[in-house]
Amino acid sequence: MDLKSMLKIENRGMFASFAFYGVVGIICFIILGIIDPRLIHIGIIGILNLIAAYGLFKRRFWAFWVVIALFFIATIFSAIMLYYSILESDLLFSISMTAYLVLTWIFTAYTSTKRNTLES
Asked: What's the number of domains the chain is made of?
């Protein structure tokens, strides 16, 4: 039995969205544990990403609304972090925040167009 049938992957795009939100949620918790546990906003973003990943994996309709909320949260968070990283000339951090921002927009747009595949 291959991995695709074990995970019941019907749509590769939705699986990519699930994987993106799941990986970002895990990375947020790694950052929270390594850098500073007082970064509550990183923890909240991580929790919301894992909730969105679960909802997309189980194809729940409410996952669409979590993804929309994460779109606004990620856009504001990335914009603020990019503003301050440009002032400090931190190139690697700026590239990673830009990639996170662009990927969030891409997967939000994809999830919005495919929201009919999510069950209510």
From this structure: 1
